[in-house]
Amino acid sequence: MAESSTICNFVSRIYYHQNYSLYMRQFRFLLPVLAWLLLTGELTAQTAQYRVGVCDWMVLKRQKLGQFALARELGCDGVELDMGGLGTRELWDNKLRDEAEARHFLHVADSLGVSIGAVAMSGFYAQDLTQRENYMALVTDCFDTMDRLGGVTVAFLPLGGCGNDWTTNREKRREVVRRLHDIGEAAKARGKRVGIDTPLDAKGNLKLLKEIKSDGIGIFYKFQTAIERSVDIASDMKKLGAKNICAIHASNTDRVWLRNDSAINMPHIKQTLDQMGWQGWLFVERSRDTSMVRNVKMNYGSNVHYLRTLFNQYPAPAVALDSAGRPADYVTTIVNRARKCTDELGITWTPQGQTVLNIVSNRYFQLNDIYAERDTLKKTDKKLAEATADSKLYRSHFAFDAQLSLFLTPQQIETVKDVMTYNVVKVTYDAQCDMIPTLTDEEKQQIMAWLKEARELAVDAESSKKKHEVFGKYKGRINNYLSARGYDLVKEREAWYERIKARGGKI
Question: Is pLDDT at 54 greater than 80 in this prediction?
Fold first, then answer.
């Protein structure tokens, strides 16, 4: 795993850094991470054949330190870091040209156990390589940055900016080949390899590589390109050969998640790569669900989870699902119900989300067990049945909060409870404020306090009916409170209905 090498690298730097005391202070904060990695078995030899990452420019973290924490949260092995924008600039908008900034980036990546698997020159998606006279300066800047980031060996160079005519236009093709030969030789001299993205299939790419005549150039294989050309991905990669594939952009254009994409037979692709003996990085560039295209965690979390589950061992949830001995269809129903909570938080397809999903599912299982036991005891002793259930509910209620607090913020825990109680707190509170616009801040606070109290009871209730009954009692308390403070609820409600009708709403 990545943690082994990154932490060992970090520890070794302690002894060779001028500011020894500073590194020791930083290392002190890393000790809990080391303990966690040892306990979970994450700190092992780095032997994974496949490693999964995301492109920093696609997760809205281009050359931002936050990309490493996000990658860790998504369950990635690492990132593909971009050189920055180009546009009309002479050089990349590259803040990692600064040695201190690059050291800072590398330190944060190492401390979080996140690798930098490749450095991308994504600006060439739009820029024509044959029209940039300073192309070697741009590539050299990339190589220098790769060295500053700990000796990254693979660079990504798309040829999209050249258009597609270069593949058939002899003069332009010769220029593309000439420049790629120069780039490849420079890369080889520095112990690197540049993976190019072309519109060609395996046969065309092999012919191109033969023309380039440089081991410093390979193919950065892209699933999307193969799909757009109606090429079978697995057979195309097999024809191309393992030695010619630097890395893979394992995603399609934005439409659906990888797990739902009928155009990609991922198990067959994995089987083919196994047979080829290929090993390296699979980066998720796109494959976002267009119904939630801006939801970074859900989109990339889902795709990373799918790839790491299929190609590599995905981090096990910190809390196991208590599904043993339970009917499979019942477990599926409960997990789907619990998923509404993690979907609302936007963390379902992250390691954190998988853990929270299990905690919430286990809570539903536990409630079912408590009430099933109560119903059995009722047949012989009703008093004992209720007392036993109350005692277990009391203990489990606080245990549920305590367990969630290890992985969620207080506000996130409230969101979980809201979803588990059908969002009645918000719906009722908003309705009360809309019905009586003259409510004071004090009155609003009291209403919210009672609704949250009701939620704490409702979250333990055995059915949706019982949950709504709990809220019903508290709604009665709220009505009595408002009546005692001089509100005529009948008139307030009638006026409210008229306002709703006037704005075209339904009662």
Answer: yes
The pLDDT of residue 48 is: 73
Integer CA distances (angstroms), 473 to 16, 450, 458, in order: 68, 10, 11
For 350, list phi and psi in degrees, rounded to 5.
Answer: -120, 160
Phi-psi region of 242 (alpha: psi -120 to 50; beta: other; left: phi over 0): alpha
Q: Which residues lie closer than 8 Å to 465 by C-beta, 6 or more apart?
A: none
> What residues form DSSP beta bridges with 54?
79, 284
Tokens at 449, concatenated: 């306090």
pLDDT higher than 90, residue 33? no
Rounded distance, CA 273 to CA 240, Å?
11
pLDDT in tens, 410-469: 999 999 999 999 999 999 999 999 999 999 999 999 999 999 999 999 999 999 999 999
Q: What is the DSSP letter of 316?
A: P
Joined together, the tokens standing for residue 203 give 């046969």
Q: Which residues contact 39 (CB under 8 A, 6 or more apart)?
A: none
- Token digits of residue 308: 């790491």
Which long-range contacts link 268-275 to residues 24+ away (Cβ below 8 Å)? 268/234, 269/233, 269/234, 269/237, 270/310, 270/311, 271/234, 272/234, 272/235, 272/237, 272/238, 273/50, 273/237, 273/242, 274/49, 275/238
Strand spans (E) along 12-85: 50-55, 78-82
Q: Per residue in 300-325, is it b (16+ CB within 10 Å) or e — as a string?
A: bbbbbbbbbebbbebbebbbebbbee
| Angle (CA) 101 106 110, round 5° | 150
The predicted pLDDT at position 484 comes to 97
> What whole-number distance in Å separates Cα of residue 53 and Cα of residue 378?
55
210 vs 177: CA distance, rounded Å? 10
Contacts of 227 (CB under 8 A, 6+ apart): 233, 252, 253, 263, 264
Question: What phi-psi label fits residue 283: left (phi over 0), alpha (psi between -120 and 50 degrees) or beta?
Answer: beta
Rounded CA-CA distance 92/142 in Å is 9
Which tokens is 319 given?
């809390």
Look at the pTM and tell me if it is higher than 0.90. Answer: no
Hey, what are 302's tokens? 């889902």
Please write the tens of the pLDDT for every residue from 346-380.
Answer: 999 999 999 999 999 999 999 999 999 999 999 99
- Cα distances (angstroms) measured from residue 199 to each of 33, 163, 208, 323: 44, 9, 11, 48
